[in-house]
Design goal:
The protein has 199 residues and is mainly alpha-helical. It is built from 8 helices and 3 strands, in the order αααααβββααα. The protein folds into 2 domains: 21-79, Orthogonal Bundle (Helix Hairpins), CATH 1.10.287.990; 92-195, minor pseudopilin epsh fold, CATH 3.55.40. Helix 1 (21-43) packs antiparallel against helix 3 (62-79) and helix 2 packs across helix 3. The longest helix is centred in the N-terminal third of the chain and has 23 residues, at 21-43. Bound molecules: manganese (II) ion.
């Protein structure tokens, strides 16, 4: 086994009532695990077998890219979340968001609009561009900002499997729930790490 899944940073029922244990059982235990197994099988005896996951995402195409990116994206997504109910954005990081978007509600609305309007399956990302500014971007299917030199801070999985069991076709209700669970401490930590590397 080349790559392994990290443990979820919380229990399967920890995000209830917003994201159910059943959703996480399928999403982490089945979907994420299957992407990982498929990736490990595909890269055996290929030039990818000794590369790290981020490098594979940057240099591969087709099924290898799709599974590598879905493995990375899901680990990143699950780490964006924590149990709770509207974890607040605090202190200096709240100021950083205001500096980038004007107001926190403008940021939140722009992110939600991007998530609601993404056609089909994909991911919405808050990223830091090379000059250190924040942007909100949409990526279809297994799309990943690392491929175009952007540093991901936060992502929302808008594939139907992320919300169908809990919210059926209402991506909007899922987004409201997602918003309550964001771990701003983790997003801030990522921002601080990336901004150190921006000259
Ligand atoms: Mn997913």
């Amino acid at each position: 086994m080349r790559f392994e899944l990290p443990d979820l940073p919380y229990e399967l029922d920890a995000l209830e009532p917003y994201i159910s244990k059943k959703t996480l059982e399928f999403h982490s235990g089945k979907y994420h695990q299957t992407c990982l197994s498929n990736l490990n099988n595909l890269i055996q005896k290929t030039k990818y077998k000794s590369l790290d996951l981020e490098t594979i995402i940057k240099v591969s195409d087709g099924p290898v890219f799709n599974y590598a990116s879905q493995v990375w994206n899901h680990t990143f997504y699950f780490e964006c979340l924590q149990p709770g109910d509207n974890n607040p954005v605090k202190g200096p990081f709240a100021e950083v968001i205001k500096r980038n978007f004007g107001t926190f509600s403008f940021f939140k609305n722009t992110f939600a609009r991007a998530a609601e309007s993404l056609f089909g399956a994909g991911w919405v990302w808050l990223v830091l561009n090379p000059s250190g500014s924040m942007e909100i971007i949409q990526k279809s299917n297994a799309g990943n900002p690392l491929r175009i030199g952007l540093n991901p801070l936060l992502t929302c999985d808008v594939w139907e499997h992320a919300y169908y069991l809990d919210y059926q076709n209402s991506r909007q209700d899922y987004l409201k729930a997602f918003w309550k669970l964001i771990s701003w401490e983790i997003i801030e930590k990522r921002y601080n790490e990336f901004s150190k590397t921006v000259v």
